[in-house]
Fold this sequence. Notes:
22% of the residues lie in helices and 12% in strands. It has 303 residues and is α+β, with helices and mostly antiparallel strands. A four-stranded antiparallel β-sheet has the order 4-3-5-6. A three-stranded antiparallel β-sheet has the order 7-8-9, covered by helices on one side.
Amino acid sequence: MAVLKAGELHDLRGFTLIELLVVCGILAALSFIAWGGYAGVREKAADDIAHAELARLAQALRRFRADTGHYPGQGPFALAAPGTVETHVTSTRVDCNPVGGILRSWARPAADADRDAWFRSPANLAVLFEAPALCGNHPLHWLNAWHAERRRGWHGPYLDHAARAWVDVGADFNGGGTAPDGDGNPLAGSKILDVPGFGAGPALPPAGPTGKRCDDAAIETGTCLLGWRSLRRDENGYDADRHELGQHPRPFAVFGLADGDHPRVVYWGADGRYGGRNALDPCRPNAADSHGKDDAVICLESE
C-alpha cells in the first residue's frame, strides 16, 4: 500500500459546501419527481378502485330490489310521514297511524323534523347496511326480514359494515322534488349530520361552499361539509380527536330510486366535485359542467 508523504495531503479533499448544496439539490429534485410520479399513480389507483366500488354499489341495490321487490325509498321502504303516531303493540311490533313504511324512530336524527332530510339524502345508504324497522300494520311489513319459503325480504347486509362511515352533506343535494333527482349541490344548504354512507376514490379533506378545504367539520353547525367520522356524534364514546377523519373519499350518491327517475348511482370523479345531472341523458355524466367530466354514472336498469 502506498504511503502518503508529508505535503501530499492537500491533494485529497472532500466536497465544498457549494458542491454539497448542489448534490443535495439534485437529490431533492429527483425525490420530488419520483414522489410526484408515485402520487399520480396512487391517485389513479384510487380512481380505478372507485369505479369498481361504484359497480359493487349498483349490484347491491339490484340485489335489494330483487329480494324485496322495491328500491330503498319505495313502498314499505319509504319513511313514514311526519306526525305519524307509533304504537307499540308487542315487543316486536310497532303500528303506525297513518300507516307508513319505515318507522320514523328508526331514522337516526333525534329531532323528528330532521329525519326526512336525513333519510332522503342521496348519500344515505342506511337500508343497505342494516334492516329497517317497518310499521307493523303495513301489509308488506314482513319484508323487513328474509323469508326462505317466499324467497322475499331484506337479505343483507348488502354492503360490508366495514365500508360504512358517517358524512355531513348539504341539504340542497336532496333537490326540491319528492326524491333527489341529481340537480342539487352537496356543498349548499343546511348541514345534514351523520349520514351513513360509503365512498371510494382519492382521499380529500372537508370542503366549504366554494369547494375549498375547511377545518371545522366536527362542528354541527356552519358550512364545512363532507366531513367524515368513523363513529356518529351521538354514539357513546365519540371523540372528535379520535373519530373525525381528516381526509376521506367523497360519498357515492344514489338518485331516482323512490320515483323511478333513471335509478342510478354516481361517483363524483377524482376531483371530488359533483358535476350535476345530465339534462339530456341522466345515465351519463354531465360533461357540460367542468366538474362533471370525470364523474361516473351507472343506471341500474340499463345494464
